[in-house]
Amino acid sequence: MKLTGLEVRPPMTRTADSVRTSFVVEPKPVPERTPSVISIDRLSVLYGTHVAVKEVSMEIAERRVTAIIGPSGCGKSTLLRSINRMNDFIAGIGFQGAIRFRGRDIRDPGYDPIDLRRSVGMVFQKPNPFPKSIYRNVAWGAAINGYRGDLTQLVEDALKKAALWEEVKDKLSQSALALSGGQQQRLCIARAIALQPEVLLMDEPCSALDPIATARIEDLIDKLKAQYTVVLVTHNMQQAGRVSDYTAFMYMGELIEMDATGRIFTNPQVRKTQDYITGRFG
Amino acid sequence: MRQPLRKAREGLIYGVLLGCALVSVVTMLGIITVLVSESVPFFREVSVWSYLTGTRWSALLEPRTFGVLPLLAGTVQVACGALALAVPVGLGAAIYLSEYASPRLRTLTKPILEILAGVPTVVYGYFALTFITPDILQRIFPAAEVFNAASAAIVVGIMIVPTIASLCDDALRAVPRSLREGAYALAANRLEVTARVVLPGAFSGVVAAVLLALARALGETMAVTLAAGMTPKLTLNPLTSVQTLTSYIVQVSLGDTPHGTIEYQSIFAVALTLFLITLTINVIAQRMIRRFREEYD
Ligand SMILES: Nc1ncnc2c1ncn2[C@@H]1O[C@H](COP(=O)(O)OP(=O)(O)OP(=O)(O)O)[C@@H](O)[C@H]1O
Ligand SMILES: [Mg+2]
């Protein structure tokens, strides 16, 4: 069956074992439909001969949060890193199928990956600020990409959008390494935002953070979707349930099911998805 | 029954390892003792002040004067010339290896660097004397003498390139991958990532590599003696013969200078001088390396 997040599904035919999820209290409403920004078309990614992502097709909706969940090693990071070509550097990696960003094949030889990464930013699992000042961290990407406007203003705006401005406005020239883990992660989000991207890819952005810092990042992601398209890889199903509009469940390289988050968590179509979100494996 | 046996064996291994560690400490103390005790009689004859500030070194010919500045100048001239050549080349090679080369090329190149570092230094000396000076330097600068500082600087430079390349490569590669990825994800190209993230991140490691190479260049003996000759001279002209601290020691050691004479004692004073200089540089380099480790652990 073809699985995309935007398809309108026929009425549910309930299976015998009705689904009971333990934590989604109220089903999320199905989000309003928006156009697709990124379209992944039967993408397979191979490390040598090992197929890490197998014939995955999905549409990423504009200004929505799409969560990718699935057990460790199922290919979430590989898929995410394919979207901004961060895994180009790996020796022996192979791709089949296509990813289109705004209709354009990102592996087209005429498409400079640097142009792509200007529009598709990334936040990593472990905060990785540069050993430079807070200001220079945020200004760095914009500066090397020839930003012509007022850098100071840009830094301030990015830090505000990342909900970090109030905490750091008096110490912009201090080292970013002196910030807490949660602050560092918000700084990395600010750094990505300062490039004015359309899409933000986040690979388990909270897995190195404590619950309070995690809650702040989740709030932030919720605000970011007013302006940005977010693709979020997470191990934490509560998190996917809380912040995402669409959820994609992957298993052993394949996309098993993708749908509006409310539906995935209350009424998944595939047994495997149900087993995973109810914690029966993974 | 087995426990005491194990304990005894543990103790034995501990003792052997401690012994190994002590050997190097004892050797070091021995060297210092010999250098100092043999230098003391020298400095009874020649004041430390006149030794350190004297501009004429004439140890073997009358009138004898022991001003170490010409030897120091020769040493510094050769070592700095070598660094000026070797740092750009070595650092460039390291950047290429760590940031640009394919993994296959890297596994091929690293052993070659290590082999290059293992070539006996006397070979480099003859290379300078029989090729660099006549076939390169004297073609370009007819005024170049047979023995000259420039040829010494060039071969010492070639000699320390592998050291610098290898140590800088380690330093560059110690910069965490996450920093590089962060930079690439911000739409940086390879050059920007290398120049603005990796190099600054590896800075103290690179400086440590340069300092260790400098210590080696200062202490280099055979190649320098063969290439630069043995004329103690306070000059800036790299095309003339100079004498370094090390080649003076060679000269006296090879000659038939009797024990107990002042010229015999003078080599210990010169050796002590060199020892103190390289020790200082090594200590600074070790500090930098330690700081560098702390940055990324
Ligand atoms: N650089 C690589 N070289 C070879 N195989 C890799 C590489 N990176 C990942 N893999 C393999 O590809 C598969 C998918 O890995 P990936 O990192 O995408 O999983 P993931 O879903 O992100 O897992 P996790 O939840 O643990 O982060 C795994 O089997 C992994 O071992
Ligand atoms: Mg992952």
Task: Characterise this structure.
The complex is a heterodimer of chains A (282) and B (297). In chain A, 31% of the residues lie in helices and 24% in strands. Chain A has 282 residues and is α/β, with parallel strands linked by helices. In chain A, the strands form 2 sheets. A 6-stranded mixed sheet of chain A has the order 6-7-8-3-9-10, with helices on both faces. A 4-stranded antiparallel sheet of chain A has the order 2-1-4-5, with helices on one face. In chain A, helix 6 runs parallel beside helix 7. The longest helix of chain A is centred in the last third of the chain and has 14 residues. The N terminus of chain A is likely disordered. Chain B folds into 2 domains: 44 residues; 240 residues, MetI-like fold, CATH 1.10.3720.10. Classes of the chains: A alpha/beta (282), B mainly alpha (297). Chains A and B meet through helix 2, helix 3 and helix 6 of A and helix 7 and helix 8 of B. The structure holds adenosine-5'-triphosphate (ATP) and magnesium ion. The site of magnesium ion (MG) has 3 residues of chain A, from helix 1. Adenosine-5'-triphosphate binds next to strand 2 and helix 1 of chain A.
